[in-house]
Nitrogen regulatory protein P-II family
Amino acid sequence: MIKVEAIVREERLEDVKEALREIDVRGITVSQVMGCGTQLGYTHVVRGSKVSMNMLPKVKFEIVVSNEDWAQRATNAIVKAARTGEPGDGKVFWYPVARAVRIRTGERDMEAITPAPSQAEGEL
């Protein structure tokens, strides 16, 4: 199992969600985060004083998929949907996942990350 984590521009939230839905990725967690990378933010003038805004609002997506093939599909969809070509588009990271447990049923590992029977029938 692989956790795919992507940090992207706030305005790309809906595009990335739609791209993941189109490739049938389920179980997405989205968080609002602040950060900076090579972009290093920008300088803003407030009441005549320069203020450095180096922590910019971003959106973080977290998904867990079964294997590298699915991780690559998800990564490709995220990159395609999030790319503007400008600094600050974001990053995608992969992490190995040792264990997963579905709290409701106690299912573990691969069974815990696949859709539950009610979800497979279209209930999301």
Summary: Residues 68-82 form the longest helix (15 residues).
